[in-house]
Amino acid sequence: MTGTHHDVAEFALIDRIRARVANRGDVILGIGDDAALLQVPAGKHLVVATDTLNAGVHFPHDTAPADIGWKSLAVNLSDLAAMAAEPAWCTLSLSLPESDTGWLDGFLDGFLALAAQHRVALVGGDTTRGPLSVCVTVHGFVEPGRALLRTTARAGDDVWVSGTLGDAAAALDHWRLGTAHDEVLRARLDRPTPRVALGLALAGTAHACIDISDGLMADLGHVCRASGVAAELDLEALPASEALRAAYEGEQRHALQAAGGDDYELCFTAPAGSLDDIARLAAQAGTAVTWIGRIVAGEGVQVFDADGQAWLPSKVGYEHFG
Ligand code: ADP
Ligand code: MG
Question: Cα(52)–Cα(75) distance, rounded to whole angstroms?
């Protein structure tokens, strides 16, 4: 809380948070003082990412507090995964309409469950009154020179993606239309899996990497622009879950996979001929990966259908709601 408006309720919320956080040996001083004191391992680079989730923009209003907690950390860990960084610490800035301990306890259930999975310590934050908004900053480490960047894709690289595409956008489509509901798809929207182990495994082998938050075509487009190359994708190669196949077919499914947001999968490029290495590293990380296309000279992302025709997604079913 900033300014002169600290009140007992806000201190009670902070105490509630502090009582539940796990510690790490490299946290010299966590929650409680004006700032945290943290020990960065000698010789490593500190990697920092931050992302805000606003109610009604980044998650539906009916999202459970625990799911908001999970997702607010997951989207940040996904950014570290895309850099091949090992997560360590995070801070949490919470804006809440009212001092609601029930809401906070639920939020912490999800947030701290994911934090425990990745041994991430919550070391500080801010608590204010206002429209529901959650801003998380994560800190991690990487060996100098090993971070995976957007700028390092090369013509001739293969393009790969982790997991499956379009599930979260499908759940959002269901929610928006109110016509259907699928637990598996909804879980992919509410509880994305940050691919931290995969990102770490790919360092040293992959050339470029990005996490997919705005949709495969848009995010791979960022890599292409940053690297000065183009991508050619095979529409039929894009991985789909059983749940997505059961709920959507044809053009609609393809649009969700190629352009739907909120997947939090990793899209990466790797030298042609590294197929076996990628398969082995992905197996080690316990994450499925799929070959989806190639990097070529030029600019932009082009997708080709089964007949080899250039394909563009229809506008149906994947717009960000707001
Ligand atoms: P200050 O006025 O010095 O910013 P605050 O009252 O905002 O102090 O915070 C007191 C302590 O509680 C600080 O260590 C801060 O990092 C921590 N803190 C506040 N809000 C949160 C939160 N939502 N999550 C984790 N730590 C928090
Ligand atoms: Mg403060």
Answer: 9
**Residue 7 CA to ligand 1 centre (angstroms):** 13
Instruction: Pick the atom of ligand 1 nearest to 94's CA.
Output: 23
- Does residue 92 have its Cβ closer than 6 Å to ligand 1? yes
Q: Is the CB of 125 under 6 A from ligand 1?
A: yes
Q: Is the Cα dihedral 220, 222, 225, 226 positive or negative?
A: negative
Whether the pTM exceeds 0.90: the reply is: yes
Q: What is the pLDDT of residues 236-276, one digit of tens each?
A: 999 999 999 999 999 999 999 999 999 999 999 999 999 99
Tens digits of residue pLDDT in 135-167:
999 999 999 999 999 999 999 999 999 999 999
CA dihedral 243, 246, 250, 252 (to 10 degrees): -60
Q: Helix 183-190 vs helix 65-82: angle between axes, to the nearest 10 degrees?
A: 60
Cβ 32 under 6 angstroms from ligand 1: yes
The backbone torsions φ and ψ at residue 300, rounded to the nearest 5 degrees and listed phi first, read 90, 170
* DSSP 3-state of 221: helix
